[in-house]
Design goal:
With 270 residues, this protein is α+β, with helices and mostly antiparallel strands. The chain is 19% helix and 14% strand. Among the domains are: 135 residues, Protein Transport Mog1p, Chain A (3-Layer(aba) Sandwich), CATH 3.40.1000; 33 residues, no CATH class. It is rod-shaped. Plays an important role in control of proteasome function. Inhibits the hydrolysis of protein and peptide substrates by the 20S proteasome. Also inhibits the activation of the proteasome by the proteasome regulatory proteins PA700 and PA28.
Length: 270
C-alpha cells in the first residue's frame, strides 16, 4: 500500500464521511496506473496541472464526485464520476482515447470503518479485495504504465562480460568443451534408427549398414582405443565406421609370403 498513507494524510483533514475515504482509495489506484489528476468537475480549466494529490474541492458534494485524469505520456484522458446511492458508491469511468466505459459498485461499509476516518491505520478494511475490484472492473480499459523493453540476449551477454572482445578469436571466455554424445555402437538394431526416429537425437542416419552398429558380434579390434604406432587413442570416435589403412598390429601370425620369393620368380617364361 505504498503511497496511500501519504495521500490519505494529506487529505485527512477534509474527509468527513466514509464515501470520501473510498474515493481517496480509488484515486490512489488510478495514480498507480500511471495517471495524474487534472482537477475536479467536467470542464477543463485554464491552468490545470497534473498532480498525484486530490484537487481542492474534490469532495465538496457528497452526492457526486467528479475527477479528471491524464496519462503521464499525455495520450489518454480519463473522467471518473462517483454517485452516492444509499450506502453504496457507483463509480463510472470513461476513457476518452478509446471511448470505453466501465463501472464499479462499492458497498462502503464493507471497506471503511466510519468511526476511524481520521486514523489511516484503522480506516480501511478488506483492502486487497477492494483493490482487485477496482483493477478488474473499473480500470480494465485503462492501460498500465509501460515497462522498460527487455534487452536482447546479446546485449545482456555483452553487459555480463564487459571485457569480451568480439573481434578476438578465440573469445577471452572460452566455453568448456563438451564430449560428443556418441550413440552406443553395440545397441541392437541401431542401424537406421535415426531414420525411424528423427527427433530421438541419435545423430545422422543413413541406409548403409555399418558392421560396427548392426548388432552383430564384433571382433576384439576396437579402433577407438588406438592402433599402436599408427593412430593415438581417441582418434576414432567410439562406434564410428573405420576402414583400416594398414595391417592391424605389427606382428601378423604366420610367415609373410613377401619375405622369400618363390622359386624361379625371375624366369619370364614361368
Amino acid at each position: 500500500m505504498a503511497g496511500l498513507e501519504l495521500l490519505y494524510s494529506c487529505v485527512a483533514g477534509s474527509i468527513c464521511c466514509p464515501q470520501d475515504a473510498v474515493v481517496c482509495f480509488v484515486h490512489w489506484e488510478i495514480i498507480k496506473r500511471g495517471y495524474k489528476c487534472l482537477g475536479s468537475g467536467d470542464e477543463i480549466r485554464n491552468g490545470d496541472k497534473k498532480s498525484e494529490l486530490l484537487p481542492t474541492g474534490w469532495n465538496s458534494s457528497k452526492e457526486l464526485y467528479t475527477l479528471r485524469y491524464k496519462s503521464n505520456d499525455d495520450k489518454s484522458d480519463v473522467l471518473v464520476k462517483a454517485i452516492t446511492v444509499d450506502s453504496s458508491l457507483i463509480f463510472n469511468l470513461m476513457d476518452s482515447s478509446t471511448e470505453q466505459v466501465s463501472d464499479l459498485t462499492v458497498n462502503v461499509s464493507d471497506y471503511v470503518h466510519a468511526e476511524h476516518l481520521q486514523t489511516f491505520e484503522s480506516v480501511f478494511k478488506n483492502t486487497e479485495d477492494l483493490s482487485q475490484k477496482v483493477k478488474n472492473q473499473l480500470l480494465p480499459s485503462v492501460p498500465a504504465p509501460r515497462k522498460k523493453e527487455k534487452k536482447s540476449r546479446r546485449e545482456t551477454s555483452d553487459e555480463s562480460q564487459p571485457d569480451r572482445d568480439p573481434l578476438r578469436i578465440p573469445s577471452r571466455h572460452p566455453q568448456t568443451s563438451r564430449q560428443p554424445n556418441w550413440p552406443d555402437p553395440m545397441a541392437p538394431f541401431a542401424a537406421g534408427g535415426a531414420d525411424l526416429d528423427p527427433f530421438g537425437g541419435r545423430g545422422g542416419g543413413g541406409m548403409i549398414v555399418d558392421p560396427l552398429r548392426a548388432g552383430f558380434p564384433r571382433s576384439g579390434f576396437d579402433p577407438s582405443s588406438g592402433i599402436p604406432g599408427v593412430l593415438p587413442p581417441g582418434a576414432v570416435p567410439p562406434g564410428a565406421r573405420f576402414d583400416p589403412f594398414g595391417p592391424v598390429g605389427r606382428h601378423r601370425p604366420g610367415p609373410d609370403p613377401d619375405h622369400m620369393p618363390p622359386p624361379g620368380y625371375d624366369d619370364m617364361f614361368m
